[in-house]
Write a structure and sequence with these properties.
globular, GMP Synthetase, Chain A, domain 3, alpha+beta, SH3 type barrels, 4 helices, single chain
Length: about 190
């Protein structure tokens, strides 16, 4: 069911999906929210363009900041753990697909080592669903920003790789189920139910 048309309350910055270019949507622009996951909003404009609006611009959509994030901040720091890193990675979403990057199988490696200055250094190797996707830098920045906010994390580096190439077979069973996909074990190509 499509969401209601929203008129932007003020000018706001938005990222073109899937190209990655940034532009300003002027106040009064009319958009529909198609996805609201991971603290950002994917919208379509009246001209049919798909755009991503960050959480810090929620007020331009007439929305309050994400209550879950505010509650987590109020709860105080959580001890560092590898599980905490993976849980945070699961808050990064592809703006076109309502599945997080971990369940999509985009995270190829997560290495946590001691940082020279104490604390932890995290290195992520990830891929994209398509090599030409312009959202790579946006998702990489999301990862680096979100992981840098974890306690005791001193350095984060996310790298986009294309070897091996991503295929839908890398997706978790939950993601396949959510997207209505069946995968023949011998084929990398999805069959939609």
């Amino acid at each position: 069911m499509p969401s209601a048309v929203i008129e932007l309350k003020r000018d706001c910055q938005a990222t073109q999906v899937p190209y990655g270019g940034v532009q300003v949507l002027p106040a009064g622009s009319r958009v529909r929210i198609t996805q609201s996951l991971g603290g950002s909003y994917t919208v379509t404009t009246e001209q049919g363009a798909m755009m991503r609006i960050e959480a810090n611009n929620a007020d331009a959509l007439g929305l309050a900041p994400d209550a879950k994030q505010a509650q987590a901040a109020e709860a105080g720091p959580v001890p560092f753990s590898e599980k905490l890193v993976w849980d945070r990675l699961k808050t990064v979403f592809d703006p076109e697909i309502p599945v997080n990057i971990v369940d999509l199988g985009l995270v190829y490696a997560c290495q946590i080592t001691p940082a020279e200055t104490g604390g932890h250094k995290i290195e992520i190797k990830m891929s994209m669903t398509a090599p030409g996707c312009g959202m790579g830098d946006v998702l990489r920045a999301d990862i680096e920003r979100k992981l840098s906010q974890l306690p005791e994390v001193r350095q984060v580096h996310a790298e986009i790789v294309f070897d091996p190439p991503w295929t839908p077979t890398r997706m978790s069973d939950a993601a396949k189920l959510q997207l209505g996909l069946d995968l023949d074990p011998g084929s990398p190509f999805p069959v939609y139910r």
